[in-house]
Write a structure and sequence with these properties.
Low-confidence stretches: none
Structural class: alpha/beta
Shape: elongated
Radius of gyration: 22 Å
Oligomer: single chain
Order of helices and strands: HEHEHEHEHEHEEHEHEHEHEEHEEEEE
Mean pLDDT: 95
Largest sheet: 8 strands, mixed
Helix content: 25-40%
Bound molecules: pyridoxal-5'-phosphate
Distance between the termini: 21 Å
Number of helices: 11
Strand content: 15-25%
């Protein structure tokens, strides 16, 4: 019985709504990542901290030895505070402001993933002011489509991300003339919630072509960074609690031709933390509408925005009740029609006070919470601290 994973008496004592993280599942996920990536020479895994920056979560990820992938200065600060070594920090993003670049320079981070020539010029200039040499990788737009939601596809020519492939050589040549820049890698990231290994294969093929072209110019990069994007099973969080990291890393090992001494970097966010987290919310009212039955809960889209933002599916369970199921729309208290967590789902009969678990909410959940409606931010608790 899935409900067994929720210590209901302990959860009852915490003010709802809140995030609940299964420490053991997080540990198991990290062990699997290390075991599967560790089978392949030169694989380095970074955690995309934008998925969840809760310091309690970060501690486990740092202890497991992962690096970090940051997309803002604030994320670099959060990573340093959590004890990650700057030598394992990569910094991506199309719009890095000067203070953010300076934080990266001051801490001698592993690599800036650069997305345009104007950005490269600014990094060169700021590094020059500090008498430093910035290590950079070029983020290339591989024009590879991921078969996922349009809002989270990032590797198509039409997206704002990265440098067009045809500009690769001229960008590298331009960087070679900059005193305070050292080009160390190529970076890619094609999207998120990708479950079809064929998408990653397509990226591997593109990387191989680019590496061949570089080789013709006698250039070998120190590293290749293929970003993140591995998806999770939102339908079956109990059956598939740990994503298929074996298939993921094996795909890269088999399809991407690394040069001798080259390292291959990954930036996984969702796959690391999504399944260990649930948003726990209390049923406030059962309302019989004209044609529907509503379970009105005390969490709303300010606590978990994915359903409203991406029409994302999250499995919901009534963890208090064992009664026969009924059909509900599960909705929040916010005065917007998009404040719906699920429509027409079966739940064990809900009564006022029942706790519902909105599953697979560990990634892009707590970190995206807002105080809209002057609400309090949801807190996060680890299973081993309550
Ligand atoms: C968001 C992002 C990631 C992580 O994506 P997931 O789908 O959560 O694995 C990795 N790299 C970059 C550059 C990103 O923007």
């Amino acid at each position: 019985m899935a409900k067994g994973i929720f210590p209901i008496e302990k959860l009852e004592r915490i003010d709802t709504p809140f995030y609940y993280y299964d420490t053991e599942l997080l540990r198991q996920t990290l062990r699997t990542i290390n075991a599967e990536a560790g089978k392949h020479e030169g694989f380095c895994v970074h955690y995309a901290i934008k998925a969840n920056a809760n310091p309690k979560i970060l501690r486990f990820i740092r202890e497991a030895g992962l690096g970090v992938d940051c997309v803002s200065g604030g994320e670099i600060e959060a990573s340093l505070k959590a004890g990650f070594s700057p030598s394992k920090i990569v910094f991506a993003g199309v719009g890095k402001s000067d203070w953010e670049i300076n934080i990266g320079l001051d801490n001698d981070i592993f690599c800036f993933n650069v997305e345009s020539i104007p950005e490269l010029e600014v990094i060169n200039e700021l590094a020059g002011q500090k008498g430093k040499v910035a290590r950079v990788a070029f983020r290339l737009n591989p024009n590879v489509g991921a078969h996922t939601h349009a809002n989270i596809t990032t590797g198509l020519a039409e997206n704002k991300f990265g440098i067009a492939m045809r500009d690769m050589m001229s960008v590298i040549e331009e960087a070679a003339g900059m005193k305070n820049i050292k080009v160390v890698g190529l970076h890619f990231h094609i999207g998120s919630q990708i479950l079809d290994m064929g998408d990653f294969e397509a990226l591997c093929n593109r990387v191989n072509e680019l590496q061949n072209e570089l080789e013709r110019h006698r250039i070998i990069m120190e590293h290749i960074n293929v970003g993140g994007g591995l998806g999770v099973d939102y339908q079956h969080p109990n059956r598939v609690p740990v994503p298929d990291f074996k298939a993921y890393f094996d795909t890269y090992a088999k399809k991407l031709k690394l040069r001798p001494g080259q390292t291959l970097h990954f930036e996984l966010g969702r796959a690391v933390v999504a399944q260990c987290g649930s948003l726990i919310t209390r049923t406030l009212y059962i309302k019989q509408g004209a044609i529907k039955q509503f379970a009105i809960v005390d969490a709303g889209f300010p606590d978990l925005i994915r359903p409203a933002l991406y029409q994302a599916y999250h499995k919901i369970e009534n963890i208090t009740s064992e009664e026969p199921t009924q059909t509900y729309d599960v909705v929040g208290p916010i005065c917007e029609s998009t404040d719906v967590f699920a429509k027409q789902i079966d739940l064990n009969q809900c009564r006022r006070g029942d706790l519902l678990a909105i599953r697979s909410a560990g990634a892009y959940g707590e970190i995206m919470a807002s105080q809209y409606n002057c609400r309090r931010l949801p807190q996060g608790y680890m299973s081993d601290e309550i």
